[in-house]
Amino acid sequence: MQITQRPSPIKVFIHPGHGGNDPGAVGNGMRESDINLDVSLRLEAMLQSQGLEVRMSRRTDTRISNLNIISSTNSWGADCYMDIHCNAFSLDSANGYETFAPAQHAAFRDIIHAAYLRNITIRDRGAKVDTQLPSGARERLRGVNCPSCFPELAFITANPTIFTDVPILRNQRQEMAQALANGIFDFFNIVPQNSIDEVEEMRFNSIDEVPGWAQPTIQKLINLGHLQGDERGLDLSLDMIRMLVINDRAGLYD
């Protein structure tokens, strides 16, 4: 598919599904809202490393209204919208990955779907029209003024001794984020300048280099005197930044 050249940088709006008093699906000791947020934050960092602009509907465990999500996406002028979720069912035999979108956004959906399956070993449940989704999800997907899709990463309720879903959700969050990032790069004809391993090995030496989702935490630690740096600067890896943000959200630096 050929995409009309867009002004740089491309803007991606991400909604990590659920949050706050709505954990989404719960299964195998995991909450959907936590997985959605973790994968989304990793995806944000990958997109930003390639020069894309990213906005998130939430960066903490909070519930965001559909009105807020739709209005924020449209007022910002996003070039695409991704609504990230995990799947669930009453029987633990349900398994696999699927991607939903309104019919008019099938091209975006299909590219995201194909990229995910190239990177993640999981049953293909197909690329589908959003009529099978709850009304709230359809409202978001159809309310934004840009290509939108709703990836269901895997079944949080699948039997972990038979299917790959739960091990993927537990242990391959970086790979899931990379799969979604690859789909976005494919859609906009972007050739990434860094591989997944190179992004993981990147060092962040100043507050301006730190991903946007982590800047408040890093600035807090600098102000508190916990981060001072040396002749190399802050010299933080992406894993170190993630750990600091997780600790901050747990209230360890308050």
Describe the structure.
The protein has 254 residues and is an alpha/beta fold. The chain has two domains: 11-187, Aminopeptidase (3-Layer(aba) Sandwich), CATH 3.40.630.40; 202-249, no CATH class. Helices cover 40% and strands 18% of the residues. It has nine helices and ten strands. It has helices spanning 32-49, 66-76, 106-119, 135-143, 165-171, 173-187, 196-201, 215-223, 238-249; strands spanning 11-16, 26-27, 30-31, 53-56, 80-87, 97-101, 124-129, 148-155, 203-204, 236-237. Helix 1 crosses helix 6 and helix 2 (66-76) packs parallel to helix 4 (135-143). Mean pLDDT is 91; it is low at 1-6.
Number of domains: 2
- Unreliably modeled segments: 1-6
Largest pleated sheet: 6 strands, mixed
CATH fold annotation of the largest domain: Aminopeptidase
Basic shape: globular
Give the helix proportion (percent range).
25-40%
CATH architecture heading of the largest domain: 3-Layer(aba) Sandwich
